[in-house]
Amino acid sequence: MINILMIEDDPEFAELLSEYLAQYDIKVTNYEDPYLGLSAGVKKFDLAILDLTLPGMDGLEVCDEIVRKYGIPIIISSARSDLNDKVEALAIGADDYLPKPYDPKEMYARITSLLRRYSKSQEGETNIPKSDFELKGDTIYYKSTALILTPAEYEVLRLLVKYQGITQSREQIINASGTMSIDSQGKSLDVIISKIRSKIGDSKRIQAVRGVGYKLV
């Protein structure tokens, strides 16, 4: 059974989604109060679904705390449609953002896709020797040497390091960057990748996957 932590202050909406997901052997435990949700033993859950508009604590703060302390996958489920909210949530570390209203079928599809990706990532970590890359605070180290990166370069490389060996689409990379130019996002990403390769000193470590995006190998 898949166990999901949901922090959502609309009990009717939470119940509707819970009932739908139950048919797929997915158990949803919802908390309307974000403080109760964060004290509910987050590590025992496989994934978190977070609303952004919550009583007493903004959903972005909840997202940040889960990312920093627990590291489980996060899907933002919110009626807030501001692009800045989406960009900030993904930059903080949320894995997906699904605007309300949506069909529960889409949430199910995103849950299974995200858990499958995380499962592959964890399997890869058990089979791959210690990586040349290390994330320590706001610094990325390559072969024990701190890389001097711009904010955009850091955001892009951080995502690739986090999912090393797994292809990240251009959209995923751009959405995870809060500083990349939206107007020229395609060219900006290619330029940033080129600069990261130069700073690493090994152009083969970041591979372009034609028609999809990039991956760190």
What does this structure look like?
The protein has 217 residues and is an alpha/beta fold. The chain folds into two domains: 2-121, Rossmann fold (3-Layer(aba) Sandwich); 128-216, Winged helix-like DNA-binding domain superfamily/Winged helix DNA-binding domain (Arc Repressor Mutant, subunit A, Orthogonal Bundle). Helix content is 44%, strand content 21%. It contains eight helices and eleven strands. The strands form three sheets. The protein has a five-stranded parallel beta sheet, sandwiched between helices. A three-stranded antiparallel beta sheet has the order 6-7-8, covered by helices on one side. A three-stranded antiparallel beta sheet has the order 9-11-10.
- Name the structural class: alpha/beta
What gyration radius follows from the Cα positions, in whole Å? 18 Å
Looking at the structure, the CATH topology of the largest domain is Rossmann fold
Q: Just give the CATH class of the largest domain.
A: Alpha Beta
Number of domains: 2
CATH architecture of the largest domain: 3-Layer(aba) Sandwich
- What's the β-strand tally? 11
By CATH, the superfamily of the largest domain comes out as: Response regulator
Strand order of the largest sheet: 2-1-3-4-5
Shape label? elongated
H/E element sequence: EHEHEHEHEHEEEHEHHEE
